[in-house]
Design goal:
alpha/beta; Beta-lactamase; 3 domains; five-stranded antiparallel β-sheet; five-stranded mixed β-sheet; 13 helices; 28% helix
Length: 497
């Protein structure tokens, strides 16, 4: 009897089970919903278009934002449009080629009754290197030229007069001066205008061991603490000072601590490095190491220039030879892949040298001509530098997308796109998007500054479509993170299209 009752109960229950509808999966959150999870107070602009330029999604696309290193998108595109290798080709084969082509060159200035001065001339090339393993643009080759001509010299001079003396840009935070992000910009630059310093622990209670090239005078106030302790080290150097202060603590079992420090006088730094190489080749240097800059004048402002003499400065003394800058694509790749500030700001000055003096104002004026011809909205950009360190810079997502679309139609478009970091693969995106469907399928320039995060470029969707996008977040509260929100929004766009 019990089994019959159980069977009847199961029979009665069966229809109810059969009629239950499966619960549909929850719809993925919209892009708007994802962006709504950004830290409170954050302002975000987004524009995504397809290959025909049709809008896929637009959120504040015409608002103006601090772009940080998305500035480099504009600088490198203008450099491709205006420079290429035109300057080198135009001068090639002429007697003034070495004097005017971008690069670094060397000469001897004879004196009455004394040994000659050695003069190292900068022409806006970012690649000059004093590294022992240097392969191109090597200072050692220039030092060798001098050693063949003279065994005794007087002063060693770094000449950075090719551009006016505007070593830092308006709107750059003063606290960046002295760091590798804010090193000075000059026509004569070497080793990225950085000094690398390594700190290793000593015995507990002792000052740590410091290794550098001795350009700065070190004041070591740091101490080694017991193994297992927390390492906390910092460098401090006042602008214009040659004294570098190290303070803090390093644990006895800690790995070496390294930092790269910017220099304030790149021309002096280059001349200092040249002197060391000359001495190493047996050249006696009887004079001092010094630098030469050209002060900013009215001639450097396009609005004040009318009727003024624009003749280029000529090298002093006997010109011996030098290096010309590598192909533009090599510089642009470094600028965009690793977001190299110095190289970007030198490009801005180089394009300003085409028809002007190489001032910041000349560079910005040259960019305006490019962007006007490309059809970018004039309200969509304003720049005070070429790297994005200036907080005066502004762009809109629409201007960034318009720039990227225009670049694709240019002869250099493929090289330009290839210079962008690839998600999960290289550059500043090597850790972002790794392990996601966008790994290897997003090519974009990053931008990070205080309270700012930007990303603009191309991505491939799940269906194989290609989209162009720009997303910029400003006013991000301190101590919060918006990058995960940005990345999740882009992944949602890629999945839905």
């Amino acid at each position: 009897m019990r089994s019959l009752i159980l069977a009847a109960a199961l029979t009665l229950c069966a229809p109810a089970i059969a009629q239950t509808e499966p619960v549909p999966p929850a719809a993925p959150p919209s892009v708007e919903a994802i962006l709504a999870t950004a830290p409170a107070g954050t302002r975000i602009g987004l524009l995504v278009v397809d290959e025909q330029g049709r809008e896929v999604i637009a959120i504040r696309p015409d608002d103006r934002f601090i772009p940080a290193s998305n500035t480099k998108l504009f600088t490198t595109a203008a450099a491709y449009a205006l420079l290429g290798d035109k300057m080198a080709r135009a001068r090639l084969g002429t007697e003034e080629f070495g004097r005017y082509a971008p690069g670094a060159f060397i000469g001897l200035a004879e004196q009455d009754g004394g040994p000659p001065h050695v003069i190292l001339y900068g022409r806006g090339d970012a690649h000059l290197s004093s590294a022992p393993d240097c392969k191109i643009d090597c200072l050692s080759e220039l030092a060798g030229m001098v050693a063949k001509k003279a065994k005794v010299v007087a002063d060693v001079v770094g000449d950075a007069s090719w551009f006016p003396d505007q070593r830092w840009s308006p709107g750059m935070s003063w606290n960046n001066i002295g760091t590798d992000s804010g090193t000075a910009i000059a026509a004569l630059s070497i080793d990225d205008n950085e000094v690398r310093v390594e700190v290793r622990p000593a015995a507990a209670g002792q000052p740590p061991l410091v290794t550098s090239n001795d350009y700065f005078t070190l004041r070591n106030e740091a101490v080694t603490i017991a193994a297992g302790g927390k390492t906390s080290l910092a460098f401090e150097r006042a602008p214009g000072s040659m004294e570098l202060r190290l303070y803090g603590e390093i644990a006895a079992d800690a790995a070496p601590f390294t930092d790269r420090l910017g220099v304030d006088d790149p021309a002096h730094y280059a001349a200092w490095a040249l002197r060391r190489q000359l001495v190493g080749r047996g050249v006696a240097v009887q004079g001092t190491v010094r630098s030469t800059y050209r002060p900013v004048a009215l001639i450097d402002d396009p609005k004040q220039r009318e009727g003024r003499d624009l003749r280029l400065p000529m090298p002093r003394g006997a010109f011996m030879g030098g290096h010309t800058a590598p192909p533009l694509a090599e510089t642009v790749r470094i600028v965009n892949k690793v977001s190299q500030n110095l190289y970007a700001d030198l490009l801005l000055r180089r394009i300003g040298r085409i028809s002007g003096t190489g001032s910041l104002a000349d560079g910005v004026a040259a960019m305006e001509q490019v962007f006007t011809a490309a059809g970018l909205p004039r309200t969509g950009w304003d720049f005070s530098d070429g790297s994005g360190m200036s907080t005066y810079n502004r762009i809109s997502p629409r201007a960034a997308v318009a720039l990227l679309r225009w670049s694709a139609s240019q002869p250099w478009g493929q090289e330009y796109r290839a210079s962008m970091p690839v998600g999960g693969v290289d550059g500043t995106l090597r850790r972002r998007f790794a392990g996601t469907p966008l790994a290897g399928r997003i090519w974009a320039k990053t931008g990070t500054l205080n309270a700012t995060h930007a990303l603009s470029g191309w991505l491939k969707t799940a269906s194989g479509r290609e989209l162009i996008f720009s997303i910029i977040a400003n006013d991000v509260p301190d101590g919060t993170r918006v990058v995960p929100v940005v990345d999740a929004a882009l992944q949602a766009i890629a999945a839905a299209n």
